[in-house]
Design goal:
Blueprint: H1 3-30, H2 35-48, H3 58-78, H4 81-86, H5 88-112, H6 117-128, H7 132-141, H8 148-176, H9 182-217, H10 221-241, H11 246-258, H12 263-287, H13 294-322, H14 327-336, H15 342-353, H16 359-381, H17 383-390, H18 392-410, E1 417-420, H19 424-436, E2 440-444, H20 447-455, E3 460-462, H21 468-473, E4 481-484, H22 489-502, E5 508-512, H23 518-524, E6 528-531, H24 533-547, H25 552-564, H26 568-571, E7 590-595, H27 607-610, E8 618-624, E9 627-630, E10 643-648, H28 650-662
Parallel strand pairs: 1-2, 1-4, 2-3, 4-5, 5-6
Antiparallel strand pairs: 7-10, 8-9, 8-10
Helix pairs in contact: 1-2, 2-12, 3-11, 3-12, 5-6, 5-8, 5-13, 6-8, 6-15, 7-8, 7-16, 8-9, 8-14, 8-15, 9-10, 9-11, 10-11, 13-14, 13-16, 14-17, 15-16, 17-18, 19-24, 24-25
């Protein structure tokens, strides 16, 4: 082997690729831009500017395909039947309609412009996709995942992720079909897809769990990682051998492991492979862009970019309005989704490789999707600003409706406590207050948390506690104290400003992460500023109970009981959307409510018959006709409309909910 000849040149290319990637991605992260755009830019710089003669050859693209394989595996790993059932209205209603209409419209336009039917279908499919990575990350950074428009957007991208699977089956079939035999090729691809899917899922059900239990018993991280890679690549190879795509097999492998107790460990182990290889995939996508050809095609690129952004924003706006969303919320969801996505690049690469899209058309589509993703951070960042100026009246009506709901929740409370934020700390404080017989009302902006807590009987309402109208509706003028239980300096300062303007003498307790912000919060009017998490719950509760006149000895006894009981009182909580995807918290036990409908399996059965303990789940309370019973008997027979408060780990809760609904 002539290492002396081959290695130096190869090393130079790899070093330059890594150097450019580190510099560009670091620059994008410095300005808080999506790293996907950074990798695409690296591909343009290295490939199209021919730095060190680097080119996206077959070997490089073959390696980059593994990035897509790991991406699809992680999506399958995140698949949750219970979550799909809870969000089925948005996912299979709004999401399905968006993908179907966008695909038909995009395919029709491409076909009208002279593209072949197969190529037009591929273009329609890739234009229908939005960027899951950009949307989820930026909404999380802006604390908008749990908002109404955030939930709509995440429901749509969840369906888009699933919709990639049929495209991965159909596009190769369209490429393989000869003239007059396309329908036959599609039928054969569908049959093979069903058979391979059934075979892999059956193998996963009967073989994977025993296999991984045996491997985990050996306590060897290296062996566990090798087994994970073997499962992923075997499933991908199986679908490829059947004439389907590698990505389909990887997705099915993820689904097989998603229902096992090893899911979170698997997800953590494959993350480095996924991120690095997926970055390489986006670099190779950027290499496909021909900068020299763009000057002659720029007008088509601009037209397609405008059509893509405007059409998707208006389509989601219309569909969300038809589903009952308010105008401002619908427009914000549309702006969040008005871009192409990483799966669009996956489908585009597949179509280019199979010659369904060629030459100039491929360059136009690639450039338009790339520019739409570059524009996405701005649209998402200013979605609220744009919507408020377009639909100012709608936002006024929304505030009025929110104010009325808070007033109804408050009822006739006086000398009560207002809890701003009903996350874990807020719920812990509420339990201490409930034990001592004090009335309270909680305000939160996570609709999932609010719905589940209200179903469980907690006095919580959806509302922005930084708004004067909402605080007034919560009875600030008659309140005895106010708690800011979340860790957000900007929001806390806004709330303090409103409270000090309306009730300067009112005791206000504030949670913060550390003492770095203590003086600023005290200067803004905070009575007490207390640090973080469980100890923050105990400290806030002790200060509050003392202010409310509870004897000090009794307060100390309560705190001592919580310590002696190893915080059992503080463990269960309603997590809301803010915790979705947090691996470190994935196995922690939490509370979850399930409302029984007429056709659910659990109706007219006792808790003993249901045997929920087999899932590692405990029923902590049952709420029936507004009355909440704690620690229900195992012989209690459940009825339609009962609200069960379950306690357990997230995956266990999902399985228990399915058992309650389906048996």
């Amino acid at each position: 082997m002539h290492y002396g000849v081959m290695v130096p040149g190869l090393f130079v290319q790899i070093l330059i690729l890594l150097a450019v990637a580190v510099l560009v991605v670091a620059l994008f992260r410095r300005f808080n831009l999506p790293t996907i755009l950074g990798y695409l830019s690296v591909g343009v710089l290295v490939g199209q500017l021919h730095i060190a003669g680097f080119d996206a050859g077959d070997d490089t693209r073959a390696l980059a395909e593994f990035g897509v394989v790991f991406l699809m595996f992680s999506i399958g790993l995140e698949f949750s039947l219970a979550r799909m059932l809870r969000m089925r209205g948005v996912v299979f209603g709004l999401g399905a309609a968006q993908v179907l209409i966008s695909t038909v419209a995009g395919a029709g336009l491409a076909w009208a412009l002279g593209m072949s039917p197969a190529g037009a279908f591929a273009v329609g499919g890739l234009l229908a996709m939005s960027s899951t990575a950009i949307v989820s990350k930026q909404l999380a950074d802006q604390f908008e995942l749990a908002t109404r428009h955030g939930r709509l957007a995440m429901g749509v991208v969840l369906f888009q992720d699933l919709a990639v699977i049929p495209f991965l089956i159909v596009i190769p079939a369209l490429a393989g079909g000869i003239e007059g035999a396309v329908a036959q090729s599609l039928l054969m691809a569908l049959i093979k897809g069903i058979l391979v899917t059934a075979a892999l899922l059956a193998a996963g059900h009967w073989l994977l769990r025993p296999l991984f239990r045996a491997i985990a018993a050996g306590q060897s991280p290296e062996l566990f990682m090798l087994a994970v890679l073997l499962v992923i690549l075997t499933a991908a190879w199986s679908t490829q051998q059947a004439g389907l795509s590698l990505a389909l097999g990887a997705f099915l492998a993820g689904m097989m492991l998603s229902e096992s107790e090893f899911r979170h460990q698997v997800e953590a182990d494959i993350r480095p492979f996924q991120d690095v290889l997926l970055g390489l995939f986006f670099i190779t996508v950027g290499m496909r862009l021909d900068l020299a050809a763009l000057p002659a095609l720029w007008h088509w690129v601009v037209l397609l970019l405008g059509a893509l952004v405007v059409f998707k924003a208006l389509l989601v706006l219309l569909l969300a309005r038809l589903s009952g969303a308010q105008q401002g919320v619908a427009l914000r969801a549309g702006l969040v989704l008005a871009q192409g996505g990483e799966f669009g690049f996956v489908l585009l690469s597949l179509a280019l490789d199979h010659k369904l899209i060629g030459g100039q058309a491929g360059q136009i589509v690639l450039a338009a999707v790339l520019l739409s993703m570059a524009l996405a951070p701005l649209l998402i960042r200013y979605n609220g600003w744009i919507a408020k100026r377009v639909f100012a009246l709608s936002y006024g009506n929304s505030l009025t409706q929110m104010q009325e709901e808070v007033s109804v929740t408050r009822g006739g409370m006086e000398n009560h406590i207002i809890i701003c934020g009903y996350g874990r700390v807020g719920q812990n404080i509420g339990r201490f207050l409930e034990q001592e017989g004090f009335d309270f009302i909680a305000l939160d902006l996570d609709p999932l948390r609010v719905r589940e807590a209200r179903e469980a009987g907690d006095p919580v309402s959806y509302g922005d506690s930084a708004r004067r109208a909402i605080l007034e509706a919560a009875g600030l003028d008659k309140a005895r104290a106010l708690i800011i239980s979340f860790n957000d300096l900007a929001a806390s300062l806004k709330i303090l400003a409103q409270v000090r303007r309306l009730r300067p003498e009112l005791p206000v307790l504030v949670r913060t992460r550390d003492d770095a912000e203590l003086e600023r919060l005290q200067a803004a009017g905070a009575t007490e500023v207390v640090p973080e998490t469980l100890e923050a719950s105990l400290m806030l509760s002790s200060h509050l109970l003392l202010i409310l006149g509870v004897p000090m000895s009794k307060v100390f006894r309560r705190i001592r009981e919580a310590h002696n009981d190893r915080y059992r009182l503080l463990r269960g909580f309603f997590p809301g959307e803010e915790r979705a995807g947090a691996q470190a918290e994935a196995a922690r036990e939490q509370l979850h409510t399930v409302t029984l409908s007429e056709r659910d399996h659990a109706v007219e059965r006792t808790l003993r018959e249901l045997q929920l303990e087999q899932f590692g789940v405990m029923v902590t309370a049952v709420r029936r006709r507004g009355i909440r019973g704690v620690a229900p008997s195992l012989d209690m027979r459940l009825q339609e409309g009962d609200v069960l408060v379950l306690y357990g780990a997230p995956r266990a809760l999902e399985r228990a909910e399915i058992a309650l609904m389906r048996g």
